[in-house]
C-alpha cells in the first residue's frame, strides 16, 4: 500500500492531489492510500464536503526504506520528517526541484503549471481513464485555489483548460460563484490562534550557501477579508517572533494576500527581516508592514527574489 | 534556441534522444537544437547513417543563465561542465535523480523505463504528433541499444511496445537482424587506443557521504566479441590506472558485457578496487578480472550495489 502525501501545512492542492493520485494509482493497479502532513486549513473542509470525500488520515511513522509517492512538493523541509530514509518512487509536482534525490530510477512528473491537480488531470487523460465526479471536484477546487481563480501569475493555459474540462464533470455551472464561496470559506478564520494562522500555509525555505543555508519561514494568508487579518496584526507579529526563536530560523515573513484585489501586504516582525525585504524587493517597511503591491505569488515572486538576494548576500 | 544535450561520453540514446527531443520541441513551437558532449561511440555513426541524420555538433561554451534541456542524464558529473550555472528548464531521463536542482519550476519527465527514447515516444503520442521516419529510426535504435534488445534487466513493457510501434514507421522488418548489425558495428573497435575504449561508455559516480563523496569511474564495453577486449586486457588495465591517477578518482572499474551471452566480466585494476568488488558483489578478483555473471546493467545492478556498500563503508 503506497502512501501518497502532499506537503506540511497542507493546502487544498496538497490534500486534493494526494486523494486523487492515490485513487488514480489504485485504478492503475498500484495500491495506494492518501495521507496528510498536518491540520487542514479553512478552505479544504469546505471542498471535501462538496466533493463528499473524507479528509485523509495523518501520515503515520514510516519504516526506513518504505516506498512513498509525493505530490505538490519535493523538498525535505516540506515533507515527512524522515524523507531522506524513505524510498521515493513517484513525484507529481509543479514547484522547482530542490534537494530531492532518489536511490533508483523513479517516476517524476514536474511541469511549470499553476497546480499539481492540473498534472493529475493530464495523467488521467494520457492513461485514457475517465474522471470520477468526486475527483473532478477535488481537482477543480485545487486549481481554483492554487491559482486564486486564475489571478495568480503562476496560472497557465493548462490550468484554465483543466477547469473548463472538469467543471461539467463536477457539475459546477458557475465556476466564479463557486470560487468566491470557496475563498469566503477560507477567509472565515474565526478565533484561530495567531500561531496557527501563521502556519496554515507556511513553508521553511533554505537560501544561499547550500551547505549552511539561511532558513526562512514564509507564510501566506490568502483572504477576501484582509481587514480581519490586520485587526490581529500585533498578535501575528508576536507569533512570528516566537516561531523565529522556537524553530531557529533566520527570518519569518507573512504575506497577507487580498485575493479579490490581487495585492500583497507583508507582515515584517523585525529589523533584520525589514532590511532583507528592502534589499530583495526594494520595498520599505513601515509599522511592520511592507506593501509588495501585486507580487502575490510566493512561488513565482517572493521566493525567487529572496533566492536572488541570498545568492549574493549569504 | 534551446540547447538539448545528453551525457558526457555519449551513447546512442544520448545522441538519438537529443536529436529527437530537439525536433519535437521545435514542432511544438520551442526552437531547440541538439548538441553532444563528446566523441561518438562505434555504434552511433552506424545508427545515424541508417537514419540519414548528421551527428549533432559539440556543445559550445554557454553563458551562465542560459536555458538548457537535458536528456538521458541529470547529474552534474555527467553533464556540461558549468551545469550549475545554467538554467535547466527541461529534463527527460530514465536514471535515478541525483544532484540536479532548478531555480524555477521546470518540465521534468522521468520514468523507470529502459531508455529515454521510450519516453520521447510517449511525449509524441501524448501530444498527438506523428513520428517522422528518421525519428523512428533514432528512437528504435536507442531502445534496442539501451536494453541490449530487451536482454537488460532495465527493460520494461513500455520499451517493448515502443519498438513494436516504431519498427513499422522506420521500415525495419526484422528487428532482431537490425539489432545484431548494430551490435556488430559497436563491437568493431579496430585499433582504438585503450584510453578511449575505457571512456567510450564511462561515467563518474559520487558514492557515500554527499559532502565528501568517494568518486568512482565506471566504464562499460558492451560487445558481441569479448575475446577482442580481453586480448587487450593489459593495455586496458594500464589505462584504468592512468585514469584513476589523472582524474583523482578513488577507483575505476570496467565491465565487459558479452551482449549475446548476457554476462559481465569486470576488469579490476588494483587491490583497493578488488576489495570493494568483493564486499559489494561478493565476487573475488583473479588475474584482475571479476566474474559478475548476469549482472550486466550498470544502472540497475552495478551502481546500486556500490551505493549500498559505500552507504555503510565511506
UniProtKB/TrEMBL annotation, chains A, B:
Protein name: inorganic diphosphatase
GO molecular function: inorganic diphosphate phosphatase activity; metal ion binding
Cofactor: Mn(2+)
Pfam families named among the record's database cross-references: DHH, DHHA2
E.C. designation(s): 3.6.1.1
Superkingdom: Bacteria
Catalysed reactions listed for this entry: diphosphate + H2O = 2 phosphate + H(+)
Keywords, ordered alphabetically: Hydrolase, Manganese, Metal-binding
Any single GO CC term annotated in Swiss-Prot or TrEMBL for this entry: cytoplasm
Residue stretches making up the DHHA2 domain: 179-310
Amino acid at each position: 500500500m503506497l502512501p501518497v502525501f502532499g506537503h506540511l501545512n497542507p493546502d487544498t492542492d496538497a490534500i486534493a492531489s494526494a486523494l486523487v493520485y492515490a485513487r488514480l494509482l489504485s485504478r492503475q493497479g498500484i495500491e495506494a492510500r492518501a495521507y496528510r502532513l498536518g491540520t487542514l486549513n479553512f478552505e479544504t473542509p469546505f471542498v471535501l464536503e462538496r466533493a463528499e470525500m473524507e479528509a485523509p488520515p495523518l501520515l503515520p511513522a514510516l519504516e526506513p526504506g518504505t516506498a512513498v509517492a509525493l505530490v505538490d512538493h519535493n523538498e525535505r523541509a516540506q515533507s515527512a520528517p524522515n524523507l531522506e530514509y524513505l524510498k521515493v518512487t513517484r513525484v507529481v509536482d509543479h514547484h522547482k526541484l530542490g534537494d530531492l534525490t532518489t536511490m533508483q530510477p523513479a517516476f517524476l512528473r514536474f511541469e511549470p503549471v499553476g497546480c499539481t491537480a492540473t498534472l493529475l488531470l493530464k495523467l488521467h487523460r494520457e492513461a485514457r481513464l475517465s474522471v470520477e465526479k468526486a475527483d473532478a471536484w477535488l481537482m477543480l477546487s485545487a486549481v481554483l485555489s492554487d491559482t486564486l481563480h486564475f489571478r495568480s501569475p503562476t496560472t497557465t493555459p493548462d490550468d484554465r483548460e483543466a477547469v473548463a474540462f472538469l467543471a461539467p464533470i463536477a457539475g459546477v455551472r458557475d465556476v466564479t460563484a463557486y470560487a468566491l464561496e470557496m475563498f469566503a470559506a477560507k477567509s472565515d478564520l474565526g478565533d484561530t490562534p495567531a500561531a496557527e494562522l501563521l502556519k496554515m500555509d507556511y513553508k521553511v525555505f533554505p537560501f544561499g550557501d547550500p551547505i549552511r543555508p539561511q532558513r526562512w519561514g514564509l507564510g501566506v494568508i490568502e483572504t477576501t477579508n484582509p481587514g480581519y487579518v490586520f485587526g490581529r496584526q500585533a498578535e501575528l507579529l508576536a507569533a512570528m517572533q516566537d516561531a523565529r526563536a522556537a524553530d531557529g530560523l533566520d527570518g519569518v515573513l507573512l504575506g497577507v494576500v487580498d485575493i479579490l484585489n490581487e495585492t500583497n501586504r507583508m507582515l515584517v516582525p523585525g529589523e533584520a527581516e525589514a532590511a532583507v525585504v528592502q534589499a530583495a524587493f526594494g520595498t520599505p517597511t513601515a509599522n511592520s508592514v511592507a506593501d509588495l503591491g501585486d507580487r502575490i505569488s510566493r512561488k513565482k515572486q517572493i521566493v525567487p527574489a529572496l533566492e536572488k538576494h541570498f545568492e549574493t548576500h549569504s
